[in-house]
Amino acid sequence: MRLPQSLWDAVQHRAIDEHIALSELVAKALTEYLKKGARQ
């Protein structure tokens, strides 16, 4: 998976701020995205 550097940096910083693993943050974000898509 390739992401713009600025997005990658923001995600890494958010994971640090929330004291969670980067993979957990990405999984949460993708889960929410998929839930929203199902409602439309």
Your description of this structure?
With 40 residues, the chain is mostly helical. It has one domain (5-39). Helices cover 80% and strands 0% of the residues. It has 2 helices and no strands. The protein has helices at residues 5-18, 22-39. α1 crosses α2 (22-39). The chain is globular. The mean pLDDT is 92.
SSE topology sketch:
Blueprint: H1 5-18, H2 22-39
Helix pairs in contact: 1-2
Structure keywords:
about 40 residues; mainly alpha; about 80% helix; about 0% strand
Brief summary of the model shown:
This protein has 40 residues and is mainly alpha-helical.
Helix content: over 70%
Rounded average pLDDT: 92
- Cα Rg: 11 Å
| Number of extended strands | 0
User: Termini distance?
Assistant: 26 Å
- Content-based structural category: mainly alpha
Uncertain stretches = none
